[in-house]
Amino acid sequence: MKKLILSVLILAISFNASAEHKIVSVGSNITEILFALDLDNQVVAADKTSTVPPEAEKIATLGHPSNVSMEGVFSYHPTSYISDDRFPNPTLISKLKAVNIDVLVLKQALTLDDLFEQIKVISVHYGKTAEGKALIHELTEKKAKLKRIPEKEQVKAAFLYGRGSLLMMGANTTVDHLFSLAQIKNSFDFEGTKPVNPESVIIANPDALVTVDKALRQEEDKSRFFELPGMSATNAGKNKSITTIPIKQVNIGLKTIDTALELNKHFYDK
């Protein structure tokens, strides 16, 4: 009897692993993971931020993750729905579960360890365990290429979202983790993302500024950053030191290590 039950369980697991799904994905890094695990042909729709890899853009037909509509999701007749907990949608989740649609809500990835956990959970859930292990191994090997810099020699940088305000990202943010990987000190150690005053900028005295590529499209855009109140008194302002990261890499994803490598190279391969 026990052998029969075990056989049934194994059969059920195998069936779930090999089953074709109709997946709705909400969260750019989650969609990115699904594509990396060769599940792209089973993703029927994703939110509008899911533009990596480029092939995902054609199915990025839902709204922003904070405003995904129930009607939009159900219009694709999904068998599986996956998101993270950054933008909770309890009403939608409840409705999906009520009609027996598979639901997977993951912890938001704020670090590489969080990302690796997402990969593990997704790969097991959809029967791609081997692919998940291979992906984590690939990322781990890439991480090992980051140049280690003694703390006293690390560049101190401040991350600004845009050129029009002093909105900085502090501790326990995705950019703070990116800086840590790249061996960069964050100039601001407060929690989260906050506006700061000119006095705080002068006291923090960053060596360099980092912003998103869309905020620095032209050469004259640089001057606008250095004209921000207090910035001219900092090392970054005096040396006109500023660089960018792709706006798509502000969140933790499969390209985070690549972005960290670029920052690492920019500041330390002189």
Automatic annotation (TrEMBL):
InterPro entries: ABC_Transporter_SBP (IPR050902), ABC_transptr_periplasmic_BD (IPR002491). Gene3D superfamilies: Nitrogenase molybdenum iron protein domain. It comes from the Bacteria. Keywords: Signal. PROSITE patterns: FE_B12_PBP. Residues 1-19 form the signal peptide. Residues 22-270 form the Fe/B12 periplasmic-binding domain. PANTHER family: HEMIN-BINDING PERIPLASMIC PROTEIN HMUT (PTHR30535:SF4), VITAMIN B12-BINDING PROTEIN (PTHR30535). This is ABC transporter substrate-binding protein. It comes from Vibrio rotiferianus.
